Amino acid sequence: MSRLVVVSNRVALPDSSQNGGLATALDAALKEAGGLWFGWSGKVARGHSGELHRTSAEGIDYLTIDLSREDYEGYYNGFSNRTLWPLLHFRLDLVDYNATTQAAYRGVNALFAEHLAREVRDDDVVWIHDYHLLPLAQELRRRGVRARLGFFLHVPFPSADIIAGLPHHEKTFGALAAYDLVGFQTERDLERFQDYIRLFRGGQVVDRGQLREQDGRCFRANAFPIGIDARGLSALAGNAMRIASVRRLQSSLGSRALAIGVDRLDYSKGLPERFRAFERFLDRHPDQHGRLTYLQIAPVSRGGVASYRALRQELEQFAGHINGGHADPDWTPVRYVNRTYPHATLTGFYRLARIGLVTPLRDGMNLVAKEFVAAQDPEDPGALVLSIFAGAARELDGALLINPFDSDGVADAISTALKMPVEARRERWQSMMTRICDYDIHAWRKDFLRSLEHARD
Ligand SMILES: O=P(O)(O)OC[C@H]1O[C@H](O[C@H]2O[C@H](CO)[C@@H](O)[C@H](O)[C@H]2O)[C@H](O)[C@@H](O)[C@@H]1O
Ligand SMILES: O=c1ccn([C@@H]2O[C@H](COP(=O)(O)OP(=O)(O)O)[C@@H](O)[C@H]2O)c(=O)[nH]1
């Protein structure tokens, strides 16, 4: 078995309390074959980029690198989160292109490659994650690295015409052809990537999942929808009443049902649209007035980017507006919380909820949708209201699928979910639970790594 090298912008260090499902899956893979996890240390250095930190635990080596303030601003806040993130989420209107941040992005990828090239052996398998590192394979090949290189994009891949809106897009997206295997969340993302290679790279789709570049070089691409540790989360949820904050939430609800949303404060998650739809629900369904409390957990994210700060302000005002117009002395329709909760607590919150609201405008997968399903009580499960624009919608066919831009449609789905009889909820839940247990986070990483091992066959 080859050694595994994982590369990602954020590294889930062994002592961190915030490590989620992805960290668990990659940890398991790294432990199996022994391996190395490389990425940004999360630290912004006073001087230059490049100071390395090395640590090991349970057979895994962790190597992280500090970034200078200038590189952090250019690579992370700049090109990754002000240019690529909106572009990849179909938001050309928010794309802020700047040649300086693009150069910083390329520079940090080159710096990562410089250090990695000294670590990687020819028989290693290297798995690189996400939009921060699109050109890393190209930089590694330039430095003579011959190991198998795989890439997984956690966010959507938009249509070729949107990508073409980015000046010099070939430099960033053409570089994907340097990988042996490129993985996407859904078949639609894969199809749009294949279109891009045909239309803008002069490449060919030889066979499903097999692409040929103009110069004759072949590489593979496929869909690998990321999963969660469904059984593990289900067990956590079953024990969550031991957690004081879960019990407090339950007693605060009284006899009212709970609707829950859990999202980073990000414009891709469609939070203002969701608040609008909830307000429409209150207006259109007066018979259900006072029967439902909506809890929105929204940890602050990427505060260094102006559009994220503006969103935070907008939502604070919106929550106040809805409560001002609809609350009773003993009922607040919207509870809006900017804190981050550990998984154990979140699973308890999910289990208390009659309705899960997952309504992003675009989302690579959306793990919250799957976590909500895993956490339900099989005897009395809640219903999931899910956007057709989340990658998860391809698998979770038992959800009430909605278009997040249609506030009346979302409002009516909330009402339907609230009234849904338990038999119908059980039937819908069972089909979703079966799927997320069958293709869980471990099946996902084994599937990807197996394909990468054989990508050159
Ligand atoms: O690292 P941050 O800038 O704080 O952002 C957090 C992560 O957000 C994104 O998550 C994506 O990956 C999920 C798992 O595959 C997927 O379900 C979701 O739809 C995506 O948005 C981002 O892609 C990660 O790199 C960030 O670390
Ligand atoms: O207070 C919180 C809010 C979110 N999450 C986790 O953050 C992840 C969010 O992943 P998702 O795919 O839904 O969206 P992303 O934020 O990655 O775009 C999920 O595992 C959530 O359980 C968490 O642990 N605590």
From TrEMBL:
> What is this enzyme's catalytic activity, as reactions?
D-glucose 6-phosphate + UDP-alpha-D-glucose = alpha,alpha-trehalose 6-phosphate + UDP + H(+)
Under SUPFAM superfamilies, the record lists: UDP-Glycosyltransferase/glycogen phosphorylase
Q: In which pathway does it act?
A: Glycan biosynthesis; trehalose biosynthesis
Q: What class of enzyme is it?
A: transferase
GO MF assignments: alpha,alpha-trehalose-phosphate synthase (UDP-forming) activity
The record ties this protein, via Pfam families, to:
Glyco_transf_20
Q: What is its EC number?
A: 2.4.1.15
A single BP term in Gene Ontology: trehalose biosynthetic process
The highest taxon in the source lineage is Bacteria
Q: Which UniProt keywords apply?
A: Glycosyltransferase, Transferase
The job of this chain, per UniProt, is described as: Probably involved in the osmoprotection via the biosynthesis of trehalose. Catalyzes the transfer of glucose from UDP-alpha-D-glucose (UDP-Glc) to D-glucose 6-phosphate (Glc-6-P) to form trehalose-6-phosphate. Acts with retention of the anomeric configuration of the UDP-sugar donor.
Instruction: Return the similarity comment.
Output: Belongs to the glycosyltransferase 20 family.
NCBIfam families hit by this protein? trehalose_OtsA
Oligomer and partners: Homotetramer.
Name assigned to this protein: Trehalose-6-phosphate synthase
